[in-house]
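Re: the pair you flagged

First of the two:
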Amino acid sequence: AFGYTRRTGALTYGIGMFAQGGMGTDYEATSFLAAGSGAPVRSELGVGNVIFPVAYQVNSNLTVGATLKFMWSSLDMLMAASPAQLGAMVTGGSGALGGAIAGGALSTATWARINFSDDNDFTGAAKSTGFGASLGATYKVNQNLTVGGSYTFKSALDDMKSASSAASLSANPGAAATATFTDNGQITVIDFQMPSVLAIGASWQASPSFLLAADLKYIGWADAMGSFKMRYDSSVMGGSVSFAMPQNWKEQTVLNLGMAWKANDALTLRAGLNIAENPIPDAFVNPLFPATVKDHVTLGLGYQVSKPGDFNMSVTMAPSVSVNSGSGVAISHAQTNWQFMYSHRF
């Protein structure tokens, strides 16, 4: 990640790049999630931004701002399922491939797979780009108290697509040789978006060395994560099959609390607390996308190494959250994240 800002009079503008979010899982070929296919199961989702922010100081108390985002997303997925499970995801089909699925091409198989992956830590086989935007303002109530608010619009990402033959749909032969099924084609992840976020907050300079802050956010997951939809277009047989995995994420309210203490002229210590509910109903949690963590704690420090430069670091710890999915799979998820940053003022 990097960022650059410049102030000219009342106007501040800049450019930055950072990861907005993502998730990923890896399961061995011997895992029950491989459904006996003898191949690993994995997912890798990433969303990033290049941002173009601008802020204008209307007067000594009020500042308004806006950000335009160029966004990208990418996804790898190696998914195995029983033919019955895969069949339950099918929402439609056309051409030779759709007819084969509808005609029971997988009926005697014991496993089926949808695969698309480029095995790169920084990209996914299915990719898209798009745009996003945010608006916000801060108001200095008095010398010590500042309040603010912002609204981030739901993203406008194109559908994620792989190359024309980079995905595969396959199944084992099962009991009958006629059940052998392998095909290559293109995967399209339909209307995957990041949610809208409404936020309000305040900071209070309790003393010259002690700062307190609080934010309340309302995240519109229900509008963005109702269903995970894909279409597979065959480049061998011809035709297509559409799939949908219900997600039914709920809206999420998140409370953030933070504090910073300036220990001396060079050192600042920080701490934060995130309090939230898991937006994913247990019945719809998928082991490939187990985004179930809720609360987390952050610790950080900043150290001014020179007059223009300072170094900051933080660690975020999310305690383990365990749920039982609708298919009876027990899922446990915890995270620890580190961040390091250097800032320089010209």
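Second of the two:
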Amino acid sequence: MTEDETDALVTVIAEYQAHAGRGDEVAMILARHVAATRAEPGCVDFTAYRDPADPDHFALHEEYTDENAFQAHRKTAHFVAFVEEQIVPLLLDRSWRRYHEVPAVGAVRAK
């Protein structure tokens, strides 16, 4: 990873598929995790979504100021408690990927 990539905004999209009928439990825990993550100094945005057609399926959109903030997030007490200890055992599948923004040509991003 280059220095520019280390200093760049880190965007992660994660997907969780809970075991059948466990979506309400995941949603309850995830709501607390979202609140704790949004309070982190390096968190730009953290939003969790629940699929209305499959209430056991979730998507998370995460943005961190840089790689250090993302790595710090993964080491927080709330990440360990909520995600690793409570949510993961309720999941059938979990995946996540990093993304780089494709900037719009000639457009100015609203802040």
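The chain is about 35% helix and 30% strand.

-B.
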